Amino acid sequence: MALASPYWNPLLETMEPQRLRELQLKKFKQTLAWAYEHSAFHRSLYQQAGLAPQDVKSWDDVARVPKVDKALLKQAQAQAQEPFPYGSVLSLPLEEVAEFRQTSGTTGKPIYQADSWQDWEWWAECWCYILWSQGYRPSDRVFIPFGYNIFVAFWAGHYACEKIGCEVVPGGVLDTKARVLKVQELEATAMMGTPTYILNMARVARELGLDPAELTIERITCAGEPGASIPATKDRMQRAWGAKVFDHAGATEIGAWSFECREQPGALHVNQAMFLAEIEDLATGEIIEEPGRRGRLVITALDRQAQPCVRFDSQDIIEWDQGSCACGRTFRMIKGGVVGRADDITKVKGVLLSPAAIEEVVRGFAELSDDYEVVVQRVGDSEKITLKVELVPEATGSRESVEPALRDRLRLNTNLGYHLEFHPFGTLPRYEVKARRFKDLRDQH
After folding, report:
1. Is-above-0.85 flag for pTM?
2. Domain range for 411
3. What is 61-126 written as a DSSP string?
C-alpha cells in the first residue's frame, strides 16, 4: 500500500456501488454454500427451513435465509457434540483451528469462537481497513493498554498494526498508572481502548500530575461501547488527550465490520467488501434500505470459514446514513454508529429508553465527572429512574444551577423524568474496561 493513499484497498473502498453489491451477493452465495456443506449446525438450520444454497439467486432470496443468534449458537455448543468445545457449528477439522476466543457477555455461558489461521489473517485485514482510514502509518508507535486474554478485544488490532508496519507496545499486565507512564516514556503516538478506559487513563494521568493532552498521543481507536460515537463522550476524550478519537464496531462472532475515518463524518463506514449488513425493522422484520429508519443489524461475514457468520442477529440498533463521506469511500455509512442494542433498549413508564441517550446528556455537562449510574426500580405500581452523578471538584458549589438544567435536558432528550442524586466526587463505581452503568432492578421487585 502506497503511504500517500488514504485507502488500504483503493479498488474495493472506492468501487462503484452497483459493482460492490454484485460482489457482495456473489460472496454471500459462496459463504452460504460453505456453511451448508461444512457445518452440521447450519445445514440442519437450512434444511428445517426448506432452503438449499442454490435457492438463493437474487437479493430478494437473501432474506429467506434463516437468521442465527447467540441463543442458537449457545444451544448448539451446549449439546456437547464433537468436536469439543465448538460442536456442530465448526466448519473445519479441529486440527485447522489456530485461535480460540470467547464472547465477553455478562450472562450465561459464553460462545466459543474458533478461527483458522486464514480467518485470523482475515481479522487482521478487517482491522487494517479501520486503522489505515484513521491515519495509522508505519511511523506510529501504538500503545495497546489491554489485558490480553480469551476475549478478542484488541488482539486483531494488534496484529493489524504489525501488518501495517506500526511499532506495537503491548501494555498487557501493566496497571493503569504504569500504562500512563509507559505512554509518556516511549512517546507513543496512538492508543486503543474502550471509552470508559480511555477516560479512566486520563483521570489517572492527572492524578500523577500529568496533563494527558500534553502527552504524545495523536489518535485513539475505541471499541466495546457506543461512547466514541456519542458526541459528548467523544468530545470529552478528545479534549482530555488532545487527540483525535475514532469509533469502530465489531463482535467476536462477526468480526470488525465498521469504522470511522479521519473525516469523522458522524457516521461509521460499513466494510461492504468483507461484510453484508442488513437492517431489519424491529416490529415487522422488513429489510430497511432507506436512511432514517432504525432497526436491528443482521450481518454476514463474507470470508470467514472455521465458524461461519451467516445472517447473524447482532442486536445492534443502527440506521443508514443518507450522506456520502468526504473521504471518497463508497461504502454505505450508519448514522451515529451503533446507537444501542435491542436487548438494552427498555420501556420505562411507557417510553422506549436507550442508555446511550442518558450518556449523551450527562457527558454534555462539564461540571459532571465521567462516572454516573442509572437505576430503574419498581415502586408500588409506578417506575422510578434514579440518575446518580458526581460534580467535579472545581464545580462543587454549582449543584443549584446544574440540577435543574440536567433535569430539563434529560426530559428533552428522553421524554422521561428522573430522580437525581449528587454523590461526592470519587464515590461512584469506577470501571476499568467496559462500564455497567445502567441497572434495571424491576425484575427483582
Report:
1. yes
2. 347-444
3. HHTTSPPB-HHHHHHHHHTTPSSTTTGGG--S-GGGEEEEEE---SSSSPPEEEEEHHHHHHHHHH
